[in-house]
Amino acid sequence: MRTLLLTALTVAVVLGVTFAVALRAGKQAVIDVTWGLGFVAIAITAFVSTLGHGDPVRRWLALLLTAAWGLRLAGHIFARSRGKGEDPRYEALLARAPGNPNTYALQRIYLPQGIIMWFVSLPVQVAMFVEGGIGWVLWLGVAVWAVGLFFETVGDLQLTRFRDEPSNKGKVLDTGLWHYTRHPNYFGDACVWTGLFLVAASAWPGVLTVLSPAVMVWNLYAGTGKKLLEKDIGERRPQYADYVRRTSGFFPWPPKKRAVG
Predict the structure, then answer these.
(1) What is the rounded distance in angstroms from the CA atom of residue 182 to the CA atom of residue 49?
(2) How open is the CA angle 8-206-127, to the nearest 5 degrees?
(3) In angstroms, rounded to a whole number, what is the distance separating the alpha carbons of residues 238 and 152?
(4) Does the pTM of the predicted model rise above 0.70?
(5) How far is residue 165's CA from residue 157's CA, in Å, rounded to a whole number?
(6) What is the DSSP letter of 82?
(7) What is the per-residue pLDDT across 19-52, written as a single tens digit (0 to 9) for each?
(8) Residues 6+ apart with CB under 8 A from 21
(9) C-alpha to C-alpha distance for 84 and 145, rounded to whole angstroms
(10) What Å distances lie between residue 201 and 137, 165, 234, CA to CA?
(11) Are 175 and 121 in contact (CB under 8 A)?
């Protein structure tokens, strides 16, 4: 219980600092960088607060796998957003603020993300103190995590290179991992958190945190991930409709043949 309270306090501190930085920078998109860093802070807090408990192998895996994922993601988003203005999603949201936009941001951006961050990270927190079960389930979790990090890292790299080429403006990336799924980064994220769940679930009561990866996967597939991103992309890129028709929306799968004519 002490660990859960400390990690909740960690989330509050991380988001409080993020809000202060966002006010100074003049854009709430700063929180996107903090998303990955927040999980790293939670993992460190849980690791330190449970010293002397749990299995060293599982504890170190939970810490290092979370840190590798979170730091990579934060670095990628920072590089992508550096020098740019507010994210259009947050602009649209804050434009509907009935009162003070900053108060509205705390209510509609920071509070929900803080709750989700803490809840999704429960497998990492629990993995720090559970004992036993260092077997195939744990190593399966590491393998699933590795697949996820590969899809995220390579998918983001391919998209960055595609966008950096001026001749690709207005076009749709459908090569590399994007040939098999429209969202390799979201699929990778889902695998990462499923893998971390398996690391925790390899010993009781880690399996009880199953709702945490379920929330993350649902959010990526039907919440603020895939569904929101594709809401109006067809209007901006006419070729996207054919891409949707022939390419899997989430799980990697061989594409259908292109439409003729």
Answers:
(1) 40
(2) 60
(3) 26
(4) yes
(5) 13
(6) T
(7) 999 999 999 999 999 999 999 999 999 999 999 9
(8) 30
(9) 31
(10) 8, 44, 40
(11) no
